[in-house]
Every structure is written in C-alpha cells, then in structure tokens.
Amino acid sequence: MTAATAPFPPQAPAAAAPPAAAFGARILTGLVGVLLAVILAGLNENVTKMALADIRGALGIGYDQGTWFVAVYAAASVCAMAFAPWCSVTFSLRRFTTAMLVAFAVFGALSPFARDYPTLLALRTLQGLAGGALPPMLMTVALRFLPANIKLYGLGGYALTATFAPSLGIPLAAFCTETLGWRWTFWLVIPPAAVAAVMVWRGLPQDPLKLERLRVFDWRGLLLGAPALAMLVIGLLQGERLDWLNSPLIRMLLGGGGALMALFLLNEWFHPLPFFKIQLLRNRNLSHSLLTLGGVLVVLLGVILIPSSFLAQLRGYRPLETAPVLLAMGLPQLIALPLVAALCNLRRVDCRWVLAAGLGLLALSCALGSQLTPAWSREQFYALEAVQIFAQPMAVIPLLMLATGGLAPQDGPFASAWFNTIKGFAAVAATGLLDALTTWRRHHHSHMLADQLGSFPLSADGESAATLARRVQEQATALTSADLYLCMAAVALLLILLIPFVATRIYPPRAAA
Asked: Is 3 in a helix, a strand, or coil?
C-alpha cells in the first residue's frame, strides 16, 4: 500500500527505548541537576524581564529596544523547546544537557559586556536557545529513569517550573537591582548552572551517539517550524505595542507564522522521523492536557501580574516591596507540590477530580480578587495567595499525569516536545492576551469615568482638579484589575467543563508496578 492510500502516514520504525539504568544516588544526582537547570532557565527569563527598566537605564536602551530584548529571548526559547528532545536522543541526553547548560551560563556571563545593541540581542538570542533546550530534558529524565512508584514525584518537580519559578522572578530581580547591581540579573544563574552541569555530567548515564538519525534529518521541518514559532512569538509579544493588526509588521508575523506552522504540521505528519509526532494527539488525555495547560498558564501568569501591576501603579511599590506577596505564594509550593503528588499517587484518587478541585480553587481566588478596591494594599492580597498555594499544583500535576500516562517509553521525547512547546508558547500568548485585555478595559473604564465627571462639582482650584484626576485614574486601575481577575476566574471554570467530556481516567504509575 502506498503512502497516498495508507490510512496513516508511514513512520520510521520506533527506536527501542534505551535500557533503564538502576535508580540510585547517581541517577538522583543527575535528576536534581536537571531540575536545577530548568528552574534556572525560568528564573533567568523572569528576572531579566522584571529588571528590564534597570537594564535599559544602565545600557542606554530605549523602551522599544527593550521590548525586542524580551521578544528575541522568548522566541529562541520556544523554538529550542520544540527541537531539543530530538537532539537529546541523537547526541545523548547527558552530552546535550551539559552542553546547553555551559552555553547558557557563558552567554549570560557575556551579556552585560555587549559592545552594542545588536551584539546584546545576538547574545540574548543564543542564551534563549540554550535555556529553552533545558525544560524538555527534565520531563525526559523523569519519564525514563524514575521507578514507577515515584515517577509522579519527578513530574511534580517539573511542575515547579510552572508554579514556583515564576513567583521568584520579581523578588530576585529586586534583590539583584537594589542590592547587587543590574549585572547580577544576568550573572545570578551562573554559579548554580555550573553546579547543575557537574551534577548532570556525573549523574546521568552516557548513551551512545545515534548519528545515523542525521541521515533522515527533518530539515524541511526545521526550516518551516523554527521561523513559524519565532514569528508567532514575536508577533504576540510586540502586538500590543504596535496596535496589533493595524500594524503591517504584526499582520506579517502572525499571518506568515500561522501559514508556516500549518505547513510544518503537515510535514511532520508524513516525515519518518519527525520532531513532533502528530499521531500522539489521538491520545485523548494528551490532547486534553495540552489544551488545558494553555488555559492554566494564562491563569497562573495572571495571578502574578495582576497584583504586581496593581501595587506598582496605585501604591508605587518597587519590586522589593511586592516580593513578599509573591514569595508567600511561591515558597510554600516546595511543600504543597509533593503533597499533591502523594495525593495523586493514591490508586483510589481520580486525578481528574484533583484537577477540577485545583481549577475551582483558582477560580475562587480570582473571584475574591475581583472584589479589590483602590484602598487595597499588600496585606489584602495574602488571602488570595494562600488559596493559590494548593490550587496551583492541583491544577498542574494532574495534567502531567494525564499527559504521560499510558505512553510508550519511546514516545517520551515526543510527549516532552509537545508539552514543553505548548507550555512555552502558551506563556507568551498569555502575556499578549493580558496586555490586550488590560489596555482595553483601562480605556473603557477611563472613558466611562470621564463621562461621569459632569455630575461632580469641580472647583476651579488646580489642586482639586489634579486630585480628582488622580482618583479617576486609581479607580480605573482598580476596575481593570477586577475585570482581569474575573476573566481569569472564567477561564478556570471553563476548563473544569472540559474534564468530563475529554479526559479518561489514568491510574498512578505505582498501580501498574
């Protein structure tokens, strides 16, 4: 039967999974090294983003140039997430992870010494490629090396990248810029990256090179997929600044990126050794997890950005003053994550309902946040963050369990490519969505409040006019933040409705063991 008439496209024979090394102290050392590397990659992106104003001031970079500083790193990182699993199989997990860690540290060390703006962007792009290649390695290591009865705890470690690491961005940015100096926003990750590289090299077993895979290298997929992802990411991050589809550049980036992505997915369907195995999407749990992951990341990013922006605009808080709010949510994750993993590891517990409960708590937290007023300060947000402590891992760990349960060992790298690429792209899309929603609702409330000013007596005194204008701005900011919280609550509730119709039950790995 020819490829044209076959019910499914021809695939290269699946490579046998490498023999599992005995789990012990050495493997655990490698796993912790990879976990540290992944957390560092997330911290580097968030810290430099949060400290961007100080970096721009020190390097003499304008606002528009600063947005490209963020965009090129994010675009390179998402591209690397898509193609890194293929490279780790070809060049060996240990070699590839160590090389990316070294490159990540070196490019970070050089960035503050860039002689000009193009050199800085080039270094930032290269560091984004190295940093983006690290997150897929953690899922690959956890799926391959951890025994069945503790595999879920390893996936819980991966969940730290979505719950714990983002909450530390503002606190660490504040610490670097106000205590150590702006250069340390780049250098902070270098010493732990060196430690992680040693742990990975000493802990992970050495697989043989599989250079024969290069003979069927998916060059067409690379030439289509990398530009597609980069164009879509940059278009989403630059869209708000350039007025979205009113900008020819944004139309070209989003339209061209979408067309290239369609061609890329078509190519992957028929290629014998693809970067993405499209056929895996027939797995209902994986498809559901990817869709839900996108929505969860929108909510998780929202519950970080909304209070940070509110406190900065209405209270004039610097990042150091906002840090306690985020630390109150982030640090307890180190306890909450293993507890939620232990809960999902019980055979009698259906992880779908843990997911529903987590999403419900996220919705509750956001609904409480929608009651904010201009009088709120840092103390009022602690109650919301307390609900988030268990809500976040309860919304992420079941997704990892649903996405990876029932997959064959040789499909692990493909699942990692899907999950991490969607994770990286969804974070970018969430940023663009929140920016657009913020601008829309702020303009709406500002215009509504301005129309109502005629019903208020206004003296001719200039100070009274300035005071009234300030109060109008504060009220518009508070109403905008409340609207954003309501949108996040609505997203969480909609995701709950998907659970009974899409996901099928998965039992914990220990049950199979």
From this structure: coil
CA distance 213 to 210: 6
Question: Could you report the per-residue pLDDT of 219-230, keeping only the tens digit for each?
Answer: 999 999 999 999
The pLDDT confidence band at residue 126, using thresholds 50, 70 and 90, is very high
DSSP assignment of 381-400 equals: HHHHHHHHHHHHHHHHHHHH
CA distance 138 to 33: 9
DSSP 331: T
Q: Are 139 and 413 in contact (CB under 8 A)?
A: no
Q: Give dist(CA 184, CA 197) in Å, integer.
A: 20
User: For residue 69, how many other CB atoms are within 10 A of its CB?
Assistant: 20
Per the CB < 8 A criterion, the answer to whether 388 and 271 are in contact is: no
Cα R_g (the chain), whole angstroms: 23
Place of tokens 């970096």: 55
Taking only the tens place, the pLDDT of each residue in 251-286 is 999 999 999 999 999 999 999 999 999 999 888 888
Name the more confident of 399 and 8.
399
Model confidence, pTM: 0.88
Q: Residue 320 to residues 168, 271, 308: CA-CA distances in angstroms? A: 11, 50, 11
> Rounded to the nearest 5 degrees, what angle is found at the Cα of 219, between the Cα atoms of 125 and 408?
95
What average pLDDT does range 499-510 have in this prediction? 81
- Residues 210, 208: Cα–Cα separation, whole Å: 6
Q: What is the mean pLDDT of residues 5-24?
A: 53
- Cα-to-chain-centroid distance, residue 226: 18
For the cut 70, the answer to whether the pLDDT of residue 232 exceeds it is yes
Report how far residue 194's alpha carbon sits from residue 101's, in angstroms, rounded to the nearest whole number. 8
Q: Taking each helix axis from N to C terminus, what angle separates 93-110 and 63-91, rounded to the nearest 10 degrees?
A: 160
Using alpha carbons, select from 301, 324, 300, 321 the residue that is nearest to residue 311: 321
Q: What percent of the chain has pLDDT over 70?
A: 93
The answer to whether residues 1 and 125 touch, using CB atoms and an 8 Å cutoff, is no
Question: 250 and 244 in contact (C-beta within 8 Å)?
Answer: yes
Supply the DSSP symbol for 332: T
Give pLDDT, residue 266: 96
Concatenated DSSP letters of 60-76: T--HHHHHHHHHHHHHH
Q: How far is CA 212 from CA 50, 86, 205, 346, in A?
A: 43, 13, 20, 42
Which residue, among 344, 428, 367, 364, has the nearest Cα to 156 in the 3D structure?
A: 344
Q: Is the pLDDT of residue 149 over 90?
A: no
Question: If you write DSSP's letter for every residue of 399-450 in order, what string do you get?
Answer: HHHHHHTT--GGGHHHHHHHHHHHHHHHHHHHHHHHHHHHHHHHHHHHHHHH
**HSE, side-chain direction, 13 A CA sphere, residue 136:** 33
